[in-house]
Design brief:
The chain is 41% helix and 25% strand. It comes from Callorhinchus milii. This is Ig-like domain-containing protein.
Length: 428
């Protein structure tokens, strides 16, 4: 960007010429200048040479624009009397030798036509057109959305200055509006309709005015997955892993030839672990289905499996409570039902297979959606930490439970040993 005070100077020398407002100016020696200066800087408005002012009587500076006309100062050469208008008294320094003035602390309102006139008769005149601009601050780009299928709007903004020339580039190629790309708000906004993978890239906003240019680049990444999609991905991944571990454990246990030799307490711990993993996988799958409903809306293909999963999780939960011998008095009638007993025996293996199948379908669909954007790797990396944390919480829950379970069993064993000793003593 140009530094404050840098200016553009155009000199048109002519004995007769038109000014900016169209009035005809005739002078013995005519000159017209155009200056461009930065806000709050100072500008030197040139007068004439010392030779030009010999035998002259008065120097007058005048400012005008549109319907505004203001005198700046009058200087009587012979008496060396200077009279300044109140508005310019503290902002203008006058050079008596050549009639130049230094206008300080430029404001936007100082833009306009400055005229110096020497003598009232047989006068000499000079006109200077001054444009004052606020230097552009470094621009920044604001993006409203960056998901596949949405309308993405990139807005280029500056905190200071008024840009008169704005254009956009992508990968060093200038962009023009078409059916999908629209330039709005005097090119300040670039709108991409139904964003897709190939819209990813580096977009540069170039802004400029008469003082110079400045630009800012933004790396646009079109994400295939929204927050809801990421929850579905995380829930499906957790459900798949928990169900796979549970089913693998059951298959391994069923193939053990010496399973009859396992202590009943060890068997209960193993079965409780399988049930816990099965319940965890079903809960994760329900969460994934709830967010799938939010994304795609209600449909039979989602609601029917969701109802089946809820029924299965109820059966598995009751079966788990039976293993832990907790709250079973509330389910006495259900436990006597032959159909329930059959369902209870196959509940965990069935829930594992069901969860593995459904979670795989969800994962495949999510990966297809993610591939529509250009952030597949980032989307997957974003769910690694949540999945690891939830898995750790499940493992911690099992560890805490087994710790409490062992303490309770030890207390029961100690009580049984003590009762046995008392019986022996009584018999003796």
């Amino acid at each position: 960007m140009s530094i404050p005070g840098t200016f553009l100077l155009v000199i048109l020398a002519s004995a007769s010429f038109s000014s900016q407002d169209g009035a005809l100016i005739t002078a013995a020696e005519g000159r017209e200048m155009r200056l461009v200066y930065a806000f709050n800087s100072s500008v030197l408005l040139l007068g004439f040479t010392e030779e030009d002012l010999i035998d002259k009587n008065i120097i007058q500076w005048h400012f005008s624009k549109a319907d505004i006309s203001l005198p700046i100062l009058d200087y009587y050469i012979k008496s060396k009397t200077l009279t300044k208008t109140e508005l310019y008294k503290n902002r203008v320094d006058f050079n008596e030798s050549n009639g130049s003035i230094l206008l300080k602390h430029l404001q936007i309102s100082d833009s306009g036509k400055y005229q110096i006139k020497v003598n009232l008769e047989n006068s000499m005149e000079k006109i200077i057109h001054l444009d004052v601009f606020v230097p552009l601050s470094n621009p920044f780009i604001v993006v409203n959305s960056s998901y596949v299928g949405t309308t993405v709007e990139l807005s280029c903004k500056v905190l200071m200055g008024d840009a008169t020339d704005i254009y956009w580039m992508k990968e060093e190629q200038k962009l023009f509006g078409d059916d999908r790309l629209r330039l709005m708000d005097d090119n300040r906004s670039l709108v991409i309709a139904e964003a897709e993978k190939w819209d990813c890239g580096i977009y540069t906003c170039v802004m400029g005015n008469s003082l110079g240019q400045t630009n800012h680049s933004y790396h646009l990444v079109i994400y295939g997955l929204t927050i809801s999609h990421k929850v579905i991905l995380a829930g499906s991944a957790i459900a798949f892993l928990c169900a796979l571990m549970s089913f693998t454990g059951i298959a391994f246990l069923c193939n053990q030839s010496n399973k009859e030799q396992l202590d009943i307490k060890v068997q209960n711990k193993i079965f409780f672990t399988h049930h816990t993993l099965a319940i965890s996988s079903l809960i994760a799958l329900i969460c994934a289905f709830i967010f799938q409903l939010k994304v795609s809306g209600p449909s039979a293909i989602i609601l029917v499996p969701l109802v089946i999963i809820i029924v299965v999780i109820i059966i598995v939960t009751i079966s788990t409570l039976e293993i832990t011998k907790c709250c079973m008095k509330h389910f006495t009638n259900i436990r006597k039902n032959n159909i329930f007993r059959v369902l209870k025996d196959v509940a965990v293996p069935f829930s594992d297979l069901l969860t593995i199948a459904i979670s795989l379908v969800l994962l495949i669909e999510i990966f297809k959606t993610a591939d529509k954007g250009c952030s597949l790797k980032a989307d997957i990396q974003n769910i690694v930490a949540p999945v690891a944390i939830i898995f750790s919480l499940i493992a911690l829950t099992l560890i805490v439970f087994f710790g409490l379970y062992n303490k309770r069993q030890n207390r029961n064993n100690d009580a049984e040993d003590q009762n046995g000793e008392e019986v022996v003593c009584l018999q003796a």
